């Protein structure tokens, strides 16, 4: 671990620890951090305790692994214009938690970031086999339900520019033909929701619905990823909860559906 000549050793260790936590896809344990950073266990433990107290890291579902905490979203808001994401998260928290309880699936809140979607909040399923959703995780827009939804409600020129940048495949089911994607976006906007049928990960499906601001612009998406083939009744139940949660969140933040303008 290289440190600047006139830097602070504690700050350097903290910075490297945060990078390790951010790079971990499903959270990282204390032991794994000790091995990766080659820092004494007691030092890593103290740093984690301090960062947790400040909301910069958090335990994954209350377990032994760590992920980036909600404070990072608040700090990012201070240097990024646009919607107040902290307010959005706080408004979404009870809505998505209640929906997750009813449908026994994990809910995800994501926002558009350039050519990607970024997860800013997740409400875990109370079930025994909850699907892990990484806060801070990113994915290209054309490979998932949330991203396709953002493209569907974007300006035509934005969608055109996105397609012109290339559509790489994540799975054999990813839409990689620009014309096919444009046709899918028209249908998504007409339906008011989007689906992921193993386009982002094999075996993974999802429904996503839009959240609008007071100008009728899409600022976020609510989605539920789930594994396997759902029965028709189960699929309808998940889709209904996603649509209702997104509509409730839009109303809570005084948003306006574009068709209502």
Summarize the model shown:
The protein has 261 residues and is of the alpha+beta class.
Explain what you see:
GO terms for molecular function: DNA binding; DNA-binding transcription factor activity. It comes from Rhizobium etli bv. mimosae str. IE4771. This is IclR family transcriptional regulator protein. With 261 residues, the protein is of the alpha+beta class. The chain has 2 domains: 60 residues, Orthogonal Bundle (Arc Repressor Mutant, subunit A); 189 residues, Beta-Lactamase, CATH 3.30.450. It is built from 9 helices and 9 strands. The strands form 2 sheets. Strands 6-5-4-9-8-7 form a 6-stranded antiparallel beta sheet. It has a 3-stranded antiparallel beta sheet with strand order 1-3-2. Helix 2 packs across helix 3, helix 5 runs antiparallel to helix 9 and helix 6 crosses helix 8. The longest helix has 21 residues. The radius of gyration is 20 Å and the shape is globular. 35% of the residues are buried.
User: Would you identify the regions where 5 or more consecutive residues have pLDDT less than 50?
Assistant: none
Q: Strand percentage, roughly? A: 15-25%
Helix content: 40-55%
Order of SSEs:
HEHHEEHHEEEHHHEEEH
Distance between the amino and carboxyl termini: 56 Å
Which whole number gives the mean pLDDT?
Answer: 88
CATH fold category name of the largest domain: Beta-Lactamase
Structural class: alpha+beta
| Principal-axes shape call | globular
CATH level 4 superfamily of the largest domain: GAF domain
Strand order across the largest sheet: 6-5-4-9-8-7
Give the total of domains. 2
Q: Any idea of the CATH class of the largest domain?
A: Alpha Beta
User: Main sheet, how many strands, which sense, barrel?
Assistant: 6 strands, antiparallel
């Amino acid at each position: 671990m290289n440190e600047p000549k006139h830097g602070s050793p504690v700050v350097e260790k903290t910075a490297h620890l945060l990078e390790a936590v951010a790079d971990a896809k499903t959270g990282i344990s204390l032991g794994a951090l000790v091995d990766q950073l080659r820092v004494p266990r007691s030092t890593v433990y103290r740093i984690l305790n301090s960062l947790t107290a400040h909301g910069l890291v958090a335990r994954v579902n209350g377990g032994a692994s760590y992920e980036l905490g909600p404070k990072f979203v608040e700090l990012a808001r201070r240097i990024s214009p646009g919607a107040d994401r902290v307010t959005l998260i706080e408004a979404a928290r009870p809505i998505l938690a209640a929906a997750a309880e009813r449908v026994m699936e994990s809910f995800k809140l994501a926002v558009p970031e350039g050519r990607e979607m970024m997860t800013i909040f997740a409400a875990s399923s109370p079930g025994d086999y909850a699907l892990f959703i990484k806060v801070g995780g990113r994915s290209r827009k054309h490979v998932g339900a949330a991203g396709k939804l953002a493209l569907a409600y974007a300006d035509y020129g934005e969608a055109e520019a996105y397609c012109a940048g290339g559509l790489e495949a994540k799975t054999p089911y990813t839409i990689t033909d620009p014309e096919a994607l444009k046709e899918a976006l028209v249908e998504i906007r007409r339906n008011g929701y989007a689906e992921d049928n193993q386009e982002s990960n094999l075996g993974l499906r999802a429904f996503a619905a839009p959240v609008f601001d007071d100008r009728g612009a899409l600022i976020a998406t609510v989605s539920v990823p789930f594994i396997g083939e759902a029965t028709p009744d189960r699929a309808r139940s998940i889709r209904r909860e996603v649509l209702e949660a997104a509509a409730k969140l839009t109303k809570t933040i005084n948003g306006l559906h574009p068709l209502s303008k």
